[in-house]
Amino acid sequence: QVQLVESGGGLVQPGGSLRLSCAASGSIFSIVVMGWYRQAPGKQRELVAAITSGGTTNYADSVKGRFTISRDNAKLYLQMNSLKPEDTAVYYCNAKTIPNYYWGQGTQVTVSS
Questions:
Q1: Among 96, 66, 92, which Cα is nearest to 80's?
Q2: Burial of 61 (0-12, 13-18, 19+ CB in 10 A)
Q3: Contacts of 52 (CB under 8 A, 6+ apart)
Q4: How far is CA 42 from CA 27, 45, 89, in A?
Q5: Distances (CA, A) of 101 to 1, 25, 31, 94
Q6: Three-state SS across 67-82?
Q7: Rounded to whole angstroms, how far apart are CA atoms 113 and 103?
Q8: Could you tell me whether strands 18-26 and 10-12 are parallel, antiparallel, or unpaired per DSSP bridges?
Q9: Distance of alpha carbon 25 from alpha carbon 3, whole angstroms
Q10: Torsion of CA 43, 91, 50, 28, to 10 degrees
């Protein structure tokens, strides 16, 4: 199994930046994809960005050019720049194995003046 611990959420003003971190432990050799999801109140959880073990990335259209996903061994990062109020959500780290998914506890990101 895989354990995920997230950090880095908080309150920022529009146009500001945050970096989210996710530390993975356990059977990390079995992870094939890691990603960041977010969920705002009353909305479905959506994929923000993902990265494969080979380094291939993909992003939601709403964050392209502003967010960057990266991985350093067992740590996953999401650099968020030019933040907008509509980015406000709980952000979750996800790790995919075959056939299981693992989730972090979530971290709140609030973008407001």
A1: 66
A2: exposed
A3: 32, 33
A4: 34, 10, 11
A5: 9, 14, 9, 7
A6: EEEEEECCEEEEEECC
A7: 30
A8: unpaired
A9: 5
A10: -130
Question: What are the tokens at 62?
Answer: 């709403």
pLDDT in tens, 95-111: 999 889 999 999 999 99
Distance CA 12, CA 34 (A): 25
CA distance 64 to 48: 9
4-49: pLDDT as tens digits: 999 999 999 999 999 999 999 999 999 999 999 999 999 999 999 9
CB 24 within 8 A of CB 4: yes
Angle at 59 between CA 55 and CA 64, to 5 degrees: 120
